[in-house]
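Batch job 17 of 40 flagged for manual review because the log was empty.
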Amino acid sequence: MKRWLPIVLIVALLGAIAWLALRGDEQPAAAVAATPGGAPQGPQFFGQVAGQPQAALPGDRAQQRRQLVEYVELTDHTYCSYREGSTYPPGSQPMSRNPDQAYPNRPVLESNPMRGEDRRSNPDILLQTSQSRVYLAAGESVAFSLRAVDPAGAAVPLVVTRALAAGIVNTGGRSTPQVPLTFAEDGTGAFAGVLTPSQTGLAGFDGTIRTEVRYTAGGKNGVLIFDVIHSPQVPAVWAGPPREAMEDGALVFVLRADVRKPGRYIVTGRVDDAQGRPFALATFNEVLGPGPNDIKLTVFGKLMHDGKAALPLRLRDVDGYLLKENTDPDRELMPRLEGNVLTSRKRSLEGVSEAEWESEERQRHLNEFAKDRKGAFEALAKFDPGQPLPPSACGPVQ
């Protein structure tokens, strides 16, 4: 339900704008109630206006028309943008709409002014940091590195004096062990260290593990924080080789998982075309029961046609987790599948459907937005029949 909350807000906004645009045609109710004899009762703050209501002034009429035109444009934009955005199913989207998820296993790189122990920043020394991942499944490791430079990019002498990792617990919770980390100079002036919780006293900790690194750079003391979210239990494991299938005119990558903890699983895979171009983001979001289950990552047929996919397609970098509601952290991670997972055998678009995605939910929203759009155009035409209507961004209004 949460993902459709913006749609509800849009519908409410459309209604409000329509009311503002059309209320100029309504006459205000009498300020006071009248007796059967016609004499008003109670204090008179406003005098009665005799005769017929005055005609709207030219300026008022122009303002009403502007409001109606704005309502037409808003309803048209809402309908057209929703129609275009829902052409493909939510679980099969162009990678161009999700560029930040194309390479999930690339290190997180940052460059910020160094901070001293008093947390004040020093703009004369920049700290370049790298973190190999943010989410850490059971048995996985995370690599950290840091390097100091001046604003011109020249290296600044740096030495790591201490590094400790510990789990962050809620107030009143039992503290976790502090695990020392070794950071070594790598020959380029950078210092690097690796944290593997499963090999430390943090093996069973579920949540955020914070690594605090203390260092000196250019003769000044500094503090750096690295955070990772650790999942010590594996809710499901991959079982058996992946395969491909054609279903309803779409290419489907099928992965087999042995589910240990039933619940809602979110699994995401990246799909490249034959030219190595990040082409699609395929997502699985369903409730799974215990035991063997098929996880289907779909590349929608129309998406393959519209994006002019160069086949074969290649599935890579798959990650997944069991979603946990009303708790922190909100997930238990499955082992990630890094790199190439499966390259399709399909070499042409023969048999691939060009039809738009259809669902009861999509059609319901399209009908509602189309009704709002049609009403807006009709209201403007009735208000000013002598003027042409604004063009629609996506075809005739029916």
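Reviewer: the log was empty due to a logging misconfiguration, but the result itself is present. The longest helix spans residues 58-85. Unflagging and moving on to job 18.
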